[in-house]
Amino acid sequence: MKARLSPSEGTPASLGYRMPAEWEPHFSTILAFPHHRTDFPRKLSAIPHTFAEMARVLCQGERVRLLVADKREQERAQKIFEAAGVNMDRVDFLRQRTNRSWTRDSMPLWVTKGRAARSARSPKAAFASERSDAVAVKFRFNGWARYRDHKWDDEAGRRVARDCAPRYCHPESEPGELAVLEGGSIDVDGAGTLLTTSECLVTSARARFKSQEQAERVLSDWLGVKKILWLPQGIIGDDTSGHVDDFARLAPQGKLLLCEETKKSDANHAPLRAARKALQGAIDARGRTLEVVRLPMPDPVFYAGDRLPASYANFYVANAAVLVPTFNDARDRDALSIIQECFPDRPAVGIYARDLVVGLGTLHCSTMQQPL
What we know:
single chain, alpha/beta, L-arginine/glycine Amidinotransferase, Chain A, 4-stranded mixed sheet, 9 helices, 21 strands
């Protein structure tokens, strides 16, 4: 039986836990089969095939846990995945209804003990057993305080926390008040540094915390972070009130990938310039001055008249590859090359995401790692 971490035992940080970096070894990646029609108007038929291509690459280095509503959806997913060449021996189906397929925000975050692992590129790491000391930290998911249909997603995350980790916990921001946090609102380096935005966590109308001090306490106590880097706001088209994974990402060896919009007339020019200014001289938890790497933005992507949050920063670091969203854009090749240089121990693989971004997210939003 899975055991809940009791408040009397202390917080994960007090027990020596930390949140691993995404580039550390995974046991699996959690996906949810896409089915929300209004998220992908006139595009939904294409999205399962995008997920199949993601799963094909993921299964080269780790398991995939796929959430499906029922037997019928499982059979459909299996047919599409098999046609795409996915290694089905490395796919586990979990019958659980979801509202949407953005597992980054509804699934638990994992914390583990021990030093940061430098690489996932180890034959022993790729398909090892689940570790016995991991804790699934399940924050409350409230549909970004925007969508009412989010309760199945929140429950799916709770079930994964209960069923897929030796222990789990539900963080509180105040006694008796469950803390709200989405995985896409933060990024970590596994060595104590966390990156986020004030807009998402503190200053927006849908802020997750009452103050920066409260946010820092919760993140430190429950994720074991020691240094929090605050950026002002997110990019245009994002409906999550400033998720950091759309424009700024931490990388190994003290690097930070930051999107840059060179056109002054573009609406993203000012917020990305402000982010760069905020990072001048920034120090990580190890005391290193961060090396800020410039990552281009694709040309603006519109659908039905709306600006979409298309960005190369929404990549996902898997065991076997870095999955990078591409948009049939002239800058696709440059973005792949830059990301490859930051993750030299695994290939950067482009996944076409122009259809997927119609749902206001791409690859990182659709994935959640379960670390070893």
